[in-house]
Structures are given as structure tokens and as C-alpha cells.
Amino acid sequence: MTSHSWKRRLLAVAAVALLQPCSAAQPRGASWSIAATGDFLGDVVLSKDPRTTAVWDLVRSADFGFFNMEGQIFSSQNFTGSPASENGGDNNYGNIGGGPFYDPINAFRLAQYGFSLASHANNHAWDYGHEGAIATSQYLNQAGIAVAGTGESLAEARRAVVQERNNKRVSFVAAAGSHTPQSVAGPGGGSRNDRPRPGANVLRAPVVTRVGAPQFELIKELSRAQGQLVSNEMTDIPLYTGQHPLGWSRWQLSRDNETSLLWDINADDYTGIVESIRATKNSSSDATVFSLHAHEADSGADDSYIPLPLPATVPAAYTRNISHAAIDAGADIVLIHGPHHLRGIEIYKGRPVFYSLSSLTYSLGLHFRGVDLPIEWDDSIVAITKFDRGKLHEIALYPIVHSQLTNNTCVPESQLPKLAPRPEAQRILRHLQKVSKPFGTEIVVKRNVGYVKLSR
Ligand SMILES: *[C@@H]1O[C@H](CO)[C@@H](O)[C@H](O)[C@H]1NC(C)=O
Ligand SMILES: *[C@@H]1O[C@H](CO)[C@@H](O)[C@H](O)[C@H]1NC(C)=O
Ligand SMILES: *[C@@H]1O[C@H](CO)[C@@H](O)[C@H](O)[C@H]1NC(C)=O
Ligand SMILES: *[C@@H]1O[C@H](CO)[C@@H](O)[C@H](O)[C@H]1NC(C)=O
Ligand SMILES: *[C@@H]1O[C@H](CO)[C@@H](O)[C@H](O)[C@H]1NC(C)=O
């Protein structure tokens, strides 16, 4: 087609628009859908179980399929890296190290089941150091799955990757709140013009405990006993735990005498993540997906190590902060994962935030580390979100279970997701209704599927 005929066409389109001043404005933006799941943390063994193949069919029914790549993908036959000194599985360092890794066949199966977006920014990202992260990205990319959240530099780890399916394009940014200190990617530069450091895109948000005047006097006494020079005017004090500052705790005098926790969000990380999302609005993508790995509950505890009582599993305030900021910057959907159970769903400015999508593949059974696990730790969902010409159109929640249909974790199939039968589906959806209510979100249940009530 000549440029002349293009111009004629454009003029014709403009004329039609002018001639129809009363027709309803056409919403701009793309129509697209995404099936979101949580942590991949167990092999996708082949299975003919119709409840499992139904899960893969659901994932394939959407334009994009998302999961969090917890751990690494490499073959033990030819991997040349070694376990790092820190490991995302234990709050510990040294010793043997290491963590979960999976044979490359998993990458190809996940692609076949409809997955096309994987986050690798999480606490297990660096369990096998740089080599582990490279191998993982390479295998996933070879399978056709876009990986975000780790890279050869901070810029690369933070940058959006673009994925295209069914003529639709999404920009995809991933970050980790829960992370190991040595996994943090670096910007390079500085006075020596150093090379950037490979690693993960993290959001540092250490917790500060605020206590009233009498309790703060005790903190001062403890810090003086540690040999610190503490003046009477000080209102912000660290307590040492030895050797290195990563484990030190920080205490502040609370003005109102109330005890509370403050998540001290690192301004550079916050700005970097928000800007990376904002930049996607200038790309040719139809939409932007933001993923965050965050275990922390607002009580300050890591909510994935041992189960907390349900009221204590409210997501940490920093996760709500970055989710809102991400949407303000242009994200269309926020997918959070980390806890091995479901947290609530919020609709913020017409965009959904899933505060915990639980596990895609995982099953700890009913007992773990000497603790009885609540059945909710076996629950999960596939959340299918549809956008119609840029507007949130539908969120359908399909409950899934892992090992609770047999309570036998000795077979590899127990790790696989299974579409929940009616009693379990109803229980899971009731739970989601309960944990979503504080966000003002209502979920309507039709048969075994939950639909988030959207304002039209
Ligand atoms: C390592 O082994 C896996 C299979 O175990 C194979 O798919 C892969 O191509 C091998 N990688 C290299 C770099 O040789
Ligand atoms: C905080 O508590 C202390 C000791 O109980 C009291 O002296 C002080 O007035 C209280 N401050 C406020 C702001 O309530
Ligand atoms: C988007 O593009 C415009 C025009 O080139 C530019 O002024 C703006 O800074 C860009 N914004 C971002 C976030 O990159
Ligand atoms: C999130 O926290 C940062 C840093 O404290 C603050 O600047 C920002 O306004 C907060 N954003 C939202 C959306 O709450
Ligand atoms: C598995 O354990 C859960 C929790 O105790 C129980 O509700 C469920 O009935 C058990 N299922 C089977 C098949 O035993």
C-alpha cells in the first residue's frame, strides 16, 4: 500500500469519527487475559489426572500464564555452579547451602501447559549463585517463557521483559521483597566506575519497631550495655546481634506511645521499581504486569516458614504501598506470591492486586518442621483476569488443591495442582471471601468458581 492510500484511509477514518459525534466513545486499550498462579516449587511430573489436566487447560485458555519460579532450573548432570552461602530456605548462612532445583524438562512442560511469564525475583533466586540464575533463565527462555526479576545488572533485573501471545503484548516487571542479602543486584558505577553486580531486583524494606517512652528507656539501657554511646535525645537506635549489620534490629521512640511496626522502604529501590513500570507505558505493549515476591505479614513475621494464626497473615504494609504505587505508575495487574496460602484480593483504581497466590506446585502435607499445618497451606487458585479494551472485565477464581484429596505426600503427583472438588472449592472460596473483605472486595460464588464483584 502506498503512503498516499494510507493517508486517504486515515482521512476516511477521521471523517467517520467526525460524522458520528454522538456515538459512544470507544474505550482504548487492549483486550487480553492472564491466568495467574503462585510458586512453582515441585516438579511437574506427567499426570493423566483429569483434575490436573483441567488446571493446565485453564492456564492455556488465557493469553498469558504466570508463575513464580522459586528455585532454579538446571540439570545435576552438567551444572557447573555451586551452592551459595545464603539460601532462601533457611534463615541461615554458611554450611552446605543450596536449595530447590529442577530438571530442565520442567521448563518445557510448563510452556506446553500454557505458561509464558515467570518471575525469578524471590528468596531462592541466588541459591546457586550467578550460574544457577543464568541456567534458569536460559532454560525458561529456550522453552519460550519470559523471565523477569534477575539479570546481569540492576538495570537488567529491573527492566520489563516483553512477551507476545495471540497478537497481544505485555510488559512484565518482577521484584522481590523477600530476598537474601547476597542476591541483591547492583547498579555499578561509583567513583571507580565499577561493573554492575548480577542479581535480583529487590525492594528492601527492613522493619523498625516503634515503642512508647518507658519501653524505649529499656532499649537505651540495652544499647548502653552493648557498649553503644547513647545520648538522651536519641530516638532511633540499633540493637546489635553480632558480626554483621544485616541482623541488627532498629528501634524508634513512638510519639504516641503505641507499639507499632514501620516498614522502612528503601527510597532508591522504590523509585527504581516504580520508574521501571512507568517506562513500560512508553512501549508498544498493550499492558503491564507487576509481580512481587513477599512472605512478610504485617506483624513482621515471615509467613512462609511456619504457619501464623490467620489474623496475623495480613500482608505487610510495604506490599500494599508498592502495589498501589505500581498501579499509579501504570501496572494493570499486581501478582504477589510467597506465603503458602491465599491472601486477599484488592481492586485499586480498577486494577487487581492479588496479595498471595499461594502455590502452583507444592505440598507439605499436614505436618512440617514439627508443626501441624492448617489445611489452607494446601490450597491455591488459578486466577483468570480478563481485560476488555483496557478495562477490567472479569476475575474468575478457580480453587485448586494439592495433596489433601489423599493426604499422601509420598507420591510425586501430590505436588501437582488439582481442580478442587465441590467441598474443598466451597471452603477455599469462603476463605478468599473472608481474607478479601478487609480490602472491600466481594466475591460471588457460582458453582465452584469465584467471581470478584466489579463496579461497572
Ligand atoms: C545439560 O543436560 C540437560 C539434560 O539433562 C540438557 O537438556 C542440556 O542441554 C545440557 N546442557 C548443557 C549446557 O550441556
Ligand atoms: C507516654 O508514656 C509516658 C509514661 O507512661 C508518659 O509520661 C507520657 O506522657 C506519654 N506520652 C504520650 C504522648 O502519651
Ligand atoms: C515517554 O516518552 C516521552 C516522549 O518521548 C518522554 O518525554 C518521557 O520522558 C517518557 N517517559 C518515560 C517514563 O520514559
Ligand atoms: C510508599 O512509600 C513511599 C516511601 O515511604 C512513599 O514515598 C510513597 O508515597 C508511598 N506510596 C504509596 C502509594 O503509598
Ligand atoms: C486430609 O486432611 C484434612 C485435614 O485434616 C481433612 O480435612 C481431610 O478430610 C483429609 N482427607 C483425607 C482423604 O483423608
From TrEMBL:
It comes from the Eukaryota. The keyword Glycoprotein does not apply. It holds the Pfam family PGA_cap. Residues 1-24 form the signal peptide. SMART domains: PGA_cap (SM00854). InterPro entries: Capsule_synth_CapA (IPR019079), CW_Biosynth-Accessory (IPR052169), Metallo-depent_PP-like (IPR029052). Residues 173-200 are annotated as: Disordered. SUPFAM superfamilies: Metallo-dependent phosphatases (SSF56300). Belongs to the CapA family. PANTHER family: POLYGLUTAMINE SYNTHESIS ACCESSORY PROTEIN RV0574C-RELATED (PTHR33393:SF11). This is Capsule synthesis protein CapA domain-containing protein. It comes from Aspergillus keveii.
